[in-house]
Amino acid sequence: MNPTIDLLNSHRSIRRFTDAPVPADTLTTIITAAQAAASSSFLQGVTIIRVTDSEKRVALREVANGQRYVEEAPEFLVFCADLSRSMRCCEMHGGEAAKGLTEQFIIATVDTALYAQNMVVAAESVGLGICYIGALRNDPARVTELLDLPQQVYPVFGLCLGFPDQDPEVKPRLPVPVVLKENSYSTDGEPEAIAAYDEEMRAYYASRTDNQKAQGWSEQMAGLLGREGRPHMLAFLQGQGFVKR
Ligand SMILES: Cc1cc2nc3c(=O)[nH]c(=O)nc-3n(C[C@H](O)[C@H](O)[C@H](O)COP(=O)(O)O)c2cc1C
Question: How far from the centroid of its chain's Cα atoms is residue 172's Cα?
Answer without folding.
Answer: 19
